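ugh ok fine here u go
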Amino acid sequence: MLVIDEVYHHTALQISSSDLLYLIERLKVKKENEIDTLKQKIEQFEQKRRAEEVAYQSLSPVRKWFAGRPASHHQAVEYMVQVKERFRKMEQIRRRIRELDLIVERIQLAEQHHQEELVLTPETIREIRQLSETEDVQA
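structure:
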């Protein structure tokens, strides 16, 4: 199957459809792992924030006055921006996974209609090339 670059309109890859399907499935797994990593980072932040708040609440009123608020309280805006950015990135990755699902459907349709060309975005082609180098698949 010839993979045509959507922007530059040239043949970017020549790969069998089965190898292409395999690489796209691997890309989807990789994207799911990225989402899991982001979720873990958010959960670690939340655990740290809760632990600081519990420790602060356990202090006597006098010690609270001397100790001041936990660091997470003062940095709440900064942390919330980071958390919001991670959620935004997770949504982008989910959108990318949906795009990969559509590409799988397009490959299957191309096989049914005996088409030998598939047009993909430069980003997808780049990701497939990178993955094919690590997976030892000829692309």
